[in-house]
Amino acid sequence: MNCGKLYAGVDVGASRTKAALLDARKTVVGRAVKKSGTDFAETAEACLESALESAHAKRSDIACAVATGYGRHNVGFAAETKTEIGCHARGCYLYFPFSITIIDIGGQDNKIIKLDEDGRRIGFKMNRKCAAGTGAFLEEMSLRLDIPLEEMDGLARQATRPVSLGSYCTVFTATEVLEKIRQGEKVPDLVSGLFSSVIQRIMEMDSFTERVVMSGGVVAYNPYMVTLLEDRIGRPVRVPEYPQFSGAVGAALYAMHL
Amino acid sequence: MVGEKMPDGSHPVRKDFGTLPALKKLMEDHFRELDRASRTGAQKVAWCTSVGPAELLRGMGFLVYFPENHGAMLGASRMATELIPYANAVGYSPEICSYLTSDIGAFLQHRTPLQKAYGIESVPRPDVLVFNTNQCRDVKDWLSWYARHFRAPLVGVHTHRDIGEIRGYQVRDIARQIQDLIPALEAVCGRPFDMDRFKQAVDLSLQTSRLWRRCLETAAAAPSPWTFFDAVIHMAPAVVARGTRAPVDYYRLLLAELERRIADGVAAVEDERHRLYWEGMPIWGKLRSLSEHLSALHACVVASTYCNSWIFDQLDPAEPFESMALAYTELFIVRDEAYKERYIRQCFDRYRFDGILFHDAKTCPYNTNSRYGMADRLRSALSIPTLTICGDLNDLRCFSEEQTKTNIEAFIEQLEE
Fold first, then answer.
1. What residues of chain A lie within 8 A of the CB of B414, using their CB?
2. CA-to-CA distance for B333 and A2, rounded, in angstroms?
3. Quick one: DSSP state of residue B141?
4. Contact assignment for B403 to A129 by CB distance below 8 Å
5. CATH 3.30.450.20 fits A6-89+245-256, yes or no
6. Partners of B65 in the beta sheet?
7. pLDDT tens digits, residue range B137-194?
8. What gap in Å lies between CA A199 and CA A213, rounded to an integer?
9. Share of chain B above pLDDT 70, in %
10. Which of B1, B6, B400, B416 should we substitute to test contact with A (largest number of A Cβ atoms within 10 Å)?
11. From CA A68, how far away is CA A247, in angstroms rounded?
């Protein structure tokens, strides 16, 4: 495939590394995701190679690359680094070019970013130094409940009487879940309760503007989260084409303008 | 963040001040004098909270030791985090002031940053401990622990809080409380109160305040000759030696150097592009890394509530009790939200900053002003962005370096959009 000039964005997150390749028309032509592991530089390289493979392109097709995410400074091939806040903003605004509130639920942190109609950031917030309400929280709970992560979304959808979990902290929530198990609550109801607690943590972080967008790996694998948020706020929630890749797409958009 | 690089790959240049040797000498003299007095009993030592009645104590011939300054040293030397748990273990919660917990933890472990800095083995033994609750209730609890340990008298002033317009009764009450300390202090120092000496201490404190204000206000220049991270270091004489001649002499030197920097066009941050205000306590163990990180982003923190809090220019030697009471009642920390917002808006007019960094210090609610919506209100009122950094003055367990770094970078990106 002859892609012409490609722009690469690599998002080295706390849990997963994502790479996205955009052509000059801002179309995603290649992408890949890998566990970030312990060697961010190597993972970024491998992820980019996989993205190139998926685009049937080669390294020399890349005109420019930008890195983002916690491991952004470890990406040797990136011409520049940008924060994941800036990249998620650009990545979502590409699909929804109007005033939006972006909710990104990542592996280790949550972000709420508000953009004006021109895509400029009005403000942003990240979660405090606490994993409650993040992907790490769901991973911890899947381990405790011995439920594979990929089955959680399906289970949550089967809930008939979702349990209410009130604790603020991951450890306390785990204790609360054990208590609910002892009380005989059904697993789908517990998982739905966990999803709801993630939404609750998000809603505590900031107010939302009219149009809401959700992105991030947690939403990509657990789209039921979107339904739960829609129920809570009473209006539709938009999701970009590749929610897990919003940061990487945004980084590629930055690369396009370097 | 240590070793932060500029976009061109170079490292930010730290521009030390020529006055630094004089600052170091002043601080060493301060601690050596206290240590000598503690060991020999030649002079009485009073422990005093940071904005306690130091002028009165100086006027009565006490050497004055400030535990909060020691707390800041524990933080800056990064000893605090490992010492806090020792205080937690004797019943002082990790949720309360980490100056208190690190200081008591250090004492229990027979450790002090004075050992490494000056070879001084211990903080000085107090003959009396004097508090003013204007900083918080924790300072009283803190000094109470030592009062019990040393079996030394504890006296103090209980402040008014949430003050809007200052009322006469508030000033009269504080003035009366300061006067009421005298008999107890006379009993400790063994000589009668001397009004002339007291007035002299108030006068020296006033001179210090005026010079300190002028030093801080040089940061209104663009580019600024210094940053918040410089100022918190050079603030030490105003904290530990106000009411004496030494800080007056020091701030004359410093002011001259700052004015020379302005005249010569010397910028604290190369290619200053963004001017910021710091609201809240310093993160003592991260001063250098935060300073370098912001420098690398061409951002200069030009003003802060914290450094301004050691300006007491309402002091008046002609009315020493009343003016001290007024100075300590006008303090930002004891005022209501409306006053605080007005105050920061006035700072905005003077320093023309582009954004505000709020430090939400986990263990210091009194010096944290982002918890009741002020950041949002100021963002609207001033049409500038604000960012809240979660951290702590001393307990680095409450601070995420990577998250803070990302937040600050994103904030600067936002300013550049």
1. 86, 121, 123-124
2. 65
3. H
4. yes
5. no
6. B47
7. 999 999 999 999 999 999 999 999 999 999 999 999 999 999 999 999 999 999 999 9
8. 13
9. 97
10. B400
11. 7
Mean pLDDT of chain B: 95
- Tokens, residue B100: 């208190």
Contact B413 A86 (CB under 8 A): yes
Q: What is the 3-state secondary structure (H, E, C) of B348-411?
A: HHHHCCCEEEEEEECCCHHHCCCCCCHHHHHHHHHCCCEEEEEECCCCHHHCCHHHHHHHHHHH
Give ipTM to 2 decimals: 0.88
Q: For residues A202 and A198, what is the distance between their CA atoms, to the nearest angstrom? A: 6
Strand order from edge to edge, sheet including A212-215:
A121-126, A110-115, A100-105, A212-215, A237-238
Residue-range domain boundaries for chain A: 6-89+245-256, 98-239
> What sign results for the dihedral spanned by CA atoms B107, B109, B113, B119?
positive
Tokens encoding B308: 């301004």
Q: What is the pLDDT of residue B302?
A: 98
Of B390, B406, B417, the CB nearest to A128: B390
* Interfacial residues of B (vs A; Cβ cutoff 8 Å): 379, 385-386, 388, 390, 398-400, 402-403, 406-407, 409-410, 413-414, 417
pLDDT band at B2 (very low <50, low <70, confident <90, very high): very low
Q: pTM for this structure? A: 0.92
pLDDT band at A1 (very low <50, low <70, confident <90, very high): very low
- Does domain B20-416 fall into CATH 3.40.50.11900? yes
Domain A98-239 architecture:
2-Layer Sandwich (3.30)
pLDDT tier, B8 (very low <50, low <70, confident <90, very high otherwise): low
> Chain A contacts of B390, Cβ < 8 Å?
128-129
* CA B415 to mean position of chain CA atoms: 29
State how far residue B341 is from chain A, nearest Cα, in angstroms.
Answer: 20
> Would the pLDDT of A42 be above 60?
yes
**What pLDDT is attached to residue A171?**
75
B10's CB contacts (< 8 A; 6+ apart) are none
CA A71 to chain B, closest CA, distance in angstroms equals 10
B201-260: pLDDT as tens digits: 999 999 999 999 999 999 999 999 999 999 999 999 999 999 999 999 999 999 999 999
Contact residues, chain B, for A70 at CB < 8 Å: 402, 406
The CA distances from residue B255 to B208, B259, B279, in Å, are 11, 6, 23
Chain B residues touching A126 at Cβ < 8 A = 403, 406-407
Residue-wise pLDDT for A15-32, tens only, equals 899 999 999 999 999 999
C-alpha to C-alpha distance for A229 and B375, rounded to whole angstroms: 26
Q: How far is CA B14 from CA A145, A201, B22, B236, B416, in A?
A: 52, 41, 18, 19, 24
